[in-house]
Amino acid sequence: MPAVTADTLTLPRIAPYQADQTQRPVRSVTTGPRGHEGLGFPVVRAFAGVSARDLDPFVHMDQMGEVDYQPGEPKGTDWHPHRGFETVTYMIDGRFAHQDSHGGGGLIEDGATQWMTAGSGILHIETPPAELVESGGLFHGLQLWVNLPKSEKFATPAYQSIDGGQATLVSSTDGGALVRIVAGELDGHAGPGATRTPITMAHATVAPGAELDVPWAREHNALVYVLSGRGTVGPVAHPIHQGQLAVFGPGDRITVRADEGQDSNRAALEVLLLGGRPIREPVAAYGPFVMNTRAELVQALEDYQSGRFGQIPANAIMPHTVR
């Protein structure tokens, strides 16, 4: 159950479809394979099999969990570097602790988002807090990588902590969907996230049988990822379910509908709405570095090995294990 909920009947409503608007068609629906990240936590590779051109300005996204850990099982990452992009960690259920070499950090929980600009180079860690490792519990979230244009790749590293309660809440035209806007803008409603690359990111809960039809910036691409549940997307109702990503073609609006019948452990369809202005620059990526050329990747690795990304703090948090 997402941490941030509200009575949709009391929220501002998204404006209905207008006659001069066009629905975006569905270009593709792909299924993300399952794998493991960091020290071994389960993920769905949401963007696998999708062309970089359709994803631009996004580089990578993992759905983390959903998993109900037993005591001693929760895992995260150890300290590692990044350069050239931004990481966005959104926690739907559970807790993750963050710390970085530029003074950013805190606990990400209850629908909160941690937005880290790696820029010129940063070291960081994301790991379950010790008490969660000891007790076990529910863990569900996602991490998104947002590319930076060449002019921003060496920006000063920065950190934003966005509490779940800061997300802008709106409801669908029919009142059957709750939309949490984390960044960007939907129908004139802006989210709290400050983005260097123009994007929109929102998490929607669509009740069984309800429809979410939202206006979408024509100059942005449009993606819908299903976190859980079943439904359809687009004007001709392409079926879609948990772990699948829909890529939309050009137009003014995107549509998601929830099936009347949902899984017994989920009361609704949960989707991530995602889009951004394409950067249209060459991308050279290697592990935690996203640059424009191979030479820049080599330089990033050398800079990291030379300590130019900063130092692990003296009070650093470290992965916790049950003895």
Automatic annotation (TrEMBL):
SUPFAM superfamilies: RmlC-like cupins. Residues 15-34 are annotated as: Disordered. Residues 19-31 have a biased composition (Polar residues). Residues 202-310 form the Pirin C-terminal domain. It comes from the Bacteria. InterPro entries: Pirin, Pirin_C_dom, Pirin_N_dom, RmlC-like_jellyroll, RmlC_Cupin_sf. Residues 45-146 form the Pirin N-terminal domain. PANTHER family: PIRIN (PTHR13903:SF8), PIRIN-RELATED (PTHR13903). Belongs to the pirin family. This is Pirin family protein. It comes from Tsukamurella soli.
